[in-house]
Every structure is written in structure tokens, then in C-alpha cells.
UniProtKB/TrEMBL annotation:
Residues 152-171, 182-201 form the Helix-hairpin-helix DNA-binding motif class domain. GO terms for molecular function: DNA binding. This is Unannotated protein. InterPro entries: Endo/Exo/Phosphatase_dom_1, Hlx-hairpin-Hlx_DNA-bd_motif, RuvA_2-like, Soluble_ligand-bd. PANTHER family: ENDONUCLEASE/EXONUCLEASE/PHOSPHATASE FAMILY DOMAIN-CONTAINING PROTEIN 1 (PTHR21180), ENDONUCLEASE_EXONUCLEASE_PHOSPHATASE FAMILY DOMAIN-CONTAINING PROTEIN 1 (PTHR21180:SF32).
Length: 204
């Protein structure tokens, strides 16, 4: 580049006339410098823009719909697709409503249903009842039948929510019922501590 500086100085000082080749060289150097500066500046801006729009965390997407199996005293038993967060009243409505023989008091229409749940609507007089103790104790000593209880009745047990009650019913269906209370330990989510807290409140 020293020769270029010398040529420019001589041309400016009048020692040498400016020719076209010299002008082309100077113009090329200036254009290259401008291009490089703009490229670095633009690249930095693009990098900042990309960094600004990249999300730090992916949003948690909840399932838009769930599937519930309803059987028993409804007009159209079957499997229904419902919006996530639907309640039992929505399930019954989708199944065409109760039949004339349905024991409507045996289900809690206000509770939220879960994906994969089975809802059983019994006939009047056929719904499982709380079974009293062998000594004919009071209602406070009543027990829930593991093999006949509905989802809502199982949820009444301490420490048992909708999801766990659903797994209890699934295990009961898949294994032909509970043969002994200790079978509860085979249900996912029931450990020794929870079993100890509910074993005296259930019966077969």
C-alpha cells in the first residue's frame, strides 16, 4: 500500500498527473473498505435480532382434548372426545343424558373428568353403597367397596384424587377385581404410607 500512498501524494502535490488507473485503484480500495464495514455492522445487527426473538423457554402445551368412556344408564354409552377440563355433566350430555332408570345421585356432575377415565352410571338401587363395619358401627366407620365403588366414591378416600381413583378402577378392570386389600399396593401411586391410611376404610 506504500506505493499507492506515494502515488496519491505525488498527484496531489502536482508532481505527477492523476491517471485513470490510479483513480480506479483508489476507488476499488474505498469500495472494499465500505463493504467490509457495512457487512460487519449488518452481521452484528442480525445476530442481535436473532438473539432477541429466540424464546428462552418453550411454552407448556396442554392437551386440547381428552377421551372418556361412559357406560351404564345413559342413552348412548361409548367413548367421547371432550375438551380438556370438561366436567362429568359434559360427559353425560355427550352421551345423550341419563336414562329413566339412572341413579343420578350416584355421580358428581360437577367434578372434572380426566383423560382415559371410565364413568359408570348405575341403575336406581344398584349403586354400590358404603358398607358398615361387621359390628354394625356408625357411619363414621363405614367402608368403601374396592370392587364396586365409583370413581367419586374412591376419591372420597384420604390421599386419593381423580387420577389415582382412575388407576384403581383400571387395575380392578384389568385384573378381575381386588382379591385382597394388599392388591392396592399394585396400583401405581399407592405406597405403604397411603395404603396404611386407607386400608381400614375399604373392603372388598
Amino acid at each position: 500500500m506504500d506505493w499507492l500512498k506515494l502515488k496519491i501524494a505525488e498527484a496531489i502535490g502536482g508532481k505527477q498527473p492523476i491517471n485513470k488507473n490510479l483513480l480506479l485503484v483508489v476507488g476499488g480500495v474505498v469500495a472494499t473498505a465500505v463493504f467490509l464495514i457495512n457487512g460487519i455492522s449488518t452481521g452484528g445487527s442480525e445476530q442481535q435480532t436473532v438473539n432477541a426473538v429466540m424464546p428462552s423457554d418453550q411454552p407448556i402445551v396442554k392437551p386440547a382434548s381428552i377421551y372418556v368412556h361412559v357406560v351404564g344408564e345413559v342413552n348412548s354409552p361409548g367413548i367421547y372426545e371432550l375438551d380438556s377440563g370438561a366436567r362429568l355433566v359434559d360427559v353425560i350430555f355427550a352421551a345423550g343424558g341419563f336414562t329413566h332408570h339412572a341413579d343420578q345421585a350416584s355421580v358428581n356432575l360437577a367434578r372434572e373428568v380426566t383423560d382415559g377415565e371410565q364413568v359408570v352410571v348405575f341403575k336406581v338401587g344398584a349403586a354400590p353403597q358404603l358398607i358398615g363395619s361387621a359390628s354394625g358401627g356408625s357411619a363414621g366407620a363405614a367402608q368403601i367397596s374396592l370392587n364396586r365403588a365409583t370413581q367419586s366414591e374412591l376419591e372420597a378416600l384420604p390421599g386419593v384424587g381423580p387420577a389415582l381413583a382412575g388407576r384403581m378402577i383400571d387395575w380392578r378392570t384389568a385384573n378381575g377385581g381386588f382379591k385382597k386389600k394388599e392388591d392396592l399396593l399394585n396400583v401405581s401411586g399407592i405406597g405403604d404410607k397411603l395404603f396404611a391410611g386407607i386400608k381400614n376404610q375399604v373392603t372388598l
